[in-house]
Structure formats: structure tokens, C-alpha cells
Amino acid sequence: MTPDVTAAIIPEMSNACVRYNAAVSRIFRLLLDAASVLSMLLWVATVVLWVRSYRAPGPIGGFAVLGARYRLHSDRGRLTVGGPPAAPADQVAAATERLRGLHNGNIRWQAVHAFVSGKPMVDGLEPLPMGRSSQVHAWAWLMESAKDPALQAALLQILEDPDRFADAHIALVFSQGQAYTGGWDPPPGPTLVYNWGELRVRADADSPDEVSQWLRGRRGMTWSAEPAQLPAVRDLWCDRLFRPIVSAPYWLAAIFFAIAPFLWCRSRWRRAYRRRAGCCAACGYDLRATPDRCPECGAIPVPSGASVGARRGRVTS
Three-state DSSP class for 299? Predict the structure, then answer.
């Protein structure tokens, strides 16, 4: 290769390297800016949850991984991740098999009567879970094994089934000894809606006369649980059977999320300092001998009053 050809190629290779380095630097700055904005938002959310953990402690949400549901609890400056009760898979499978009779269609809702002016009136509802006689033995076993982690894990899985969640909820209420209340919502009308232990059941009547006869105990009604409430009922029991897995203080998360914004601010300050000192804002090279262009990275200095976009390093071919 002749000296003339070599002399022509070397400047082109140098310019290509300069353009490459400037492009990589620009991409890095853009990624740092995006990460800084996201990290700042997460830092703000962390601080808000930190303050909230003292004023309103309790569950703040949840997520699912490989079919298992996990809950987030915030309490007195700490965030805790909890999951379902720990139990061997074979024991959970055995408990699930014994509970195969749980089904919303097996619930019999019994009217609770009160006497008003000497006449019986329906005052509320009481469920008779697993009402078929062939399931009485399974119900007795459920009551005796209420604190068994395998049973609790099996019931949590059943709560995912729209056709079985109501019966599983009732079984958990009774077996866990949870206090429950009942009430009409709204007052009895053409559509009867009753709240029992955070479970809404309803019955539709063709006429107000049918409702009146039922309230007087003269006829029956067909009740069913509303499927739309399944997520609320499921999350309710996920929180009640919450088993802490890992916990961390909010201050640790706040420090972690503050790293990227700190680096961003440091980078901006360093570039401004280099510009005031007469150095290249991109790489810090002394530009006193070459004020028109940085020989190190190829960036072209711009006046301090230029726009933000113009201040980013530019390269000429």
C-alpha cells in the first residue's frame, strides 16, 4: 500500500472511530436519562409507601407467579412479601382430593327467622355448606384440620374456581373461627342481595309478592353467589392466611432507587463543570489548544447559552 493511500485511509478511519465513540456516548446518556426518570418515580413511590406504612399499615396488593399468589404487606417502615402456607405438594394434593365435594351448588341457604308482632319474618340467611349427607364426614374432617397448612393451601387453590369459591369461603370462615356478620344490601326488593361474611348472594323474584311471601316464610328462593366477587374473596383469604417470606425496610429500597438519579445529577454537574473550565463536556479533554473541535472524541463545543439539544456532542464527517 502506497504512502498516499495510507495517508488518505487513516483520517477516514479516525473519523469513523470518533463518530462511533460519540454515538455510543449519546446512547449511554439516553439510557441513563431513562433509567434515572424511572428510578426517580420508584423512589417517590417508595417514600409514599414508607410514610403510609405508619399511617395505614396493611396489605397493598399482590401478584401471581407460576399459579401461586403472593401478597404485599406494608407495616411500620417495612415491606413484606408473603405467600400461601408452606406444605408438601403431595399433602396439598391429598387435601384437594378430600375437598372435591366443595361446590357452590352444594350450599343450602337457610332462612333465619325472627318474630315481629308475633309473626315469623325472615331476618337473614345462614349457609349450610356441603349440605349433602355424603359430605358430612368430609366437613367434620375439615373442621378438625382447620390449622393444617396443606388444607389451607388446598382451599386457597379452590378459591380460584368460580364454581367452587363460595363454598371454599364458607368452609374457611367456619374452620378458621372468623367472625362474620350479615345484612341486606340494599333492603329486600325485587332482587334480594344478602352479605354474609364478605360474601354476596342474591336471588331474583318475579314480583314483589314473591318477596313478601318469602319474608313471611311461605315460600323458598334460589340463592347464588355473584362470580364477580371472586378476586375480592380470594385476596381476603390470601391476606388472612398470609405467611411472610421476605421482608425489607423501605429505607434500603429508597437508597437503591436513588442511585440512578444521583448518577444523572452527577453527570450533568460534571459536564457543566467541564464546559466552564474550557474542557470537552463529553470526555473532559482540554480544548484550549483546539477550541473548535475535541481531538479526543470529536465533539464540537457549543456556546453556554445554546439549547439543551445543541449542547450534546456533535460530530462532523
Answer: coil
Tens digit of each residue's pLDDT (9 = 90 or more) over 233-260: 988 898 888 888 899 999 999 999 999 8
Condensed to tens digits (0 to 9), the pLDDT of residues 144-194 reads 677 788 888 888 888 989 998 988 888 888 777 666 677 777 665 667 788
- Rounded CA-CA distance 110/220 in Å is 9
d(CA 299, CA 280): 7
Give residue-wise pLDDT tens across range 290-317. Answer: 777 777 776 777 655 544 444 444 444 3
Q: Which phi and psi angles does 245 have, rounded to 5°?
A: -110, -50
For the chain, what's the residue count? Answer: 317
Which single residue is written with the C-alpha cell 446518556?
A: 29
Which residues, other chains included, contact 312 with Cβ-Cβ below 8 Å and sequence gap of 6+?
26, 29
Q: Alpha-carbon Rg of the chain, whole angstroms? A: 34
- pLDDT confidence of residue 185: 72
Whether 72 and 53 have beta carbons less than 8 Å apart is answered as: no
Q: Could you tell me if residue 216 is left (phi over 0), alpha (psi between -120 and 50 degrees) or otherwise beta?
A: alpha
Contact 271, 281 (CB under 8 A): yes
Q: Is the separation of the CB atoms in 110 and 128 below 8 Å?
A: yes
**pTM score over 0.70:** no
> Tell me, what DSSP letter sits at residue 227?
G
Pick from 81, 171, 87: nearest CA to 129:
171
CA–CA gap between residue 25 and residue 12 (Å, rounded): 20
Q: Residue 301, preceding bond cis, omega within 30 degrees?
A: no
CB of 102 within 8 A of CB of 130? yes
Which residues neighbour 40 within 8 Å (Cβ) at sequence distance 6 or greater? 257, 260, 261
User: What's 135's DSSP letter?
Assistant: G
C-alpha cell at 40: 426517580
**Burial zone of 103 (CB within 10 Å; 0-12 exposed, 13-18 middle, 19+ buried):** middle
